[in-house]
Amino acid sequence: MKLHTRYALAAGLLLSASQAGAVMVVNEDDEPHTITMQSGEQSETMTIDALASREIDCPSGCVLMLETGASESVEDDAQIAIRSGAFAEMD
């Protein structure tokens, strides 16, 4: 195996490992949304810009809540969209 191929494989494995336990949230709306992640007693509030995405660390499942009051329970490695101010499945 060529050296650059080995480096590419190693980089791919490291990238995969660093993303484990993350939930990908994609904001498909033309406006930013404030989202709160609740996992056990841990809570974090963040803004996801319009037409942007963000990975949220959620290794053992969590609840995501929008400022609109919408909420969704998600497991690690999930992908979810924000569409028209509500959570929706990715297309």
Descriptive report:
The protein is α+β, with helices and mostly antiparallel strands and 91 residues long. It has a single domain, classed as Sandwich (Immunoglobulin-like), CATH 2.60.40. The protein has 1 helix and 8 strands, in the order αββββββββ. The strands form 2 sheets. Strands 4-1-7-8 form a 4-stranded mixed beta sheet, with no helix packed on it. Strand 5 and strand 6 form a beta hairpin. The longest helix has 17 residues. The protein is globular, with a radius of gyration of 16 Å. The chain starts with a helix and ends with a strand. The N terminus is likely disordered.
Brief rundown of the structure:
The protein is α+β, with helices and mostly antiparallel strands.
Major sheet: size, sense and barrel closure?
A: 4 strands, mixed
Question: How many structural domains?
Answer: 1
Structural class: alpha+beta
What percent of residues adopt helix (DSSP H or I)?
Answer: 10-25%
CATH class: Mainly Beta
Provide the low-confidence segments as ranges: 1-18
Shape: globular
Can you tell me the CATH topology?
A: Immunoglobulin-like
Beta-strand segment tally: 8
Question: How many DSSP H or I helices?
Answer: 1
In angstroms, what is the radius of gyration? Answer: 16 Å
Succession of helices and strands: HEEEEEEEE
- Our estimate of the beta-strand percent is over 45%
Distance between the termini: 38 Å
CATH architecture: Sandwich
Name the average pLDDT.
Answer: 83
Strands in their spatial order, largest beta sheet: 4-1-7-8
